[in-house]
Every structure is written in C-alpha cells, then in structure tokens.
Write a structure and sequence with these properties.
- The chain is mainly α.
- The protein is built from three helices and no strands.
- The protein has helices at residues 6-24, 28-45, 57-70.
- Helix 1 (6-24) packs across helix 3 and helix 2 (28-45) packs across helix 3.
- The longest helix is centred in the N-terminal third of the chain and has 19 residues, at 6-24.
- Belongs to the RNA polymerase subunit omega family.
- It catalyses: RNA(n) + a ribonucleoside 5'-triphosphate = RNA(n+1) + diphosphate.
- It holds the Pfam family RNA_pol_Rpb6.
- Keywords: DNA-directed RNA polymerase, Nucleotidyltransferase, Transcription, Transferase.
Length: 77
C-alpha cells in the first residue's frame, strides 16, 4: 500500500491555493509577479528569523496570499 507523506499533501494544497489565486486575479502575470515580490521580500526580511526551514518563500507567499483572499478579516485596515 502506498503511503502519502505530509509534503505531498501540502504540495496539493499549495497547488489548489495557487489555482484559487490565479482564478481570482484579473491578470495572471500580475498575480505571479506579486507572489514573486512577496516571496523575495519575505526571504530577506526573515533571513535571521526562520520559522519553518522546510517551507520555501514562494510557497509561504502563496499560502499567505490565498489566506488573505479567502479570509479578508485577517487583513487589518
């Protein structure tokens, strides 16, 4: 019997979240650039403070942006 690892499950979740971001965006290129910029910014901001060394900055950016999309109450105005 094939056993799934945690990383495979999270990869699937990241793919679904990325698809949701692209579907919600009016411009695919623009959302891709926004994810890349956020990942780059987070990489340099959290260089010393690493929360999860296994999570890459791009994956973290996708998760954060999809959370902001689905849960607008987490964004403070």
């Amino acid at each position: 019997m094939y056993k799934r690892s945690k990383f495979e499950t999270s990869q699937t979740q990241v793919m679904y979240r990325a698809e949701d971001l692209i579907r919600a965006a009016s411009n695919r290129y623009r959302i891709t650039v926004q994810v890349a910029n956020r990942a780059k910014r987070r990489r340099y901001e959290d260089f010393e403070n690493i929360d999860d060394p296994m999570m890459k900055p791009v994956i973290r950016a996708i998760i954060e942006m999809s959370d902001e999309l689905t849960q607008p109450e987490i964004i403070g105005e």
